[in-house]
Amino acid sequence: MGGPGSGRRWGSGRATTEGRLKLDVSWLARNGYLSGGVERRGALTWSRGDERVGAIGIAGRRDAIEVSGRWRSNAACDSREWREMRAGAQVEWTSCRFGGVRPFFVCPGCARCVLHLYIDGPALSCRHCQRLTYASRRERESDRLMRRANTLRRRLGGPPGAAHDIAPRPKHMRRTTYERIVEAIRELEAASLSHLAAFVLAMDRGLTTRSAGGDGRRTAFWGKRA
Question: pTM here?
Answer without folding.
Answer: 0.54
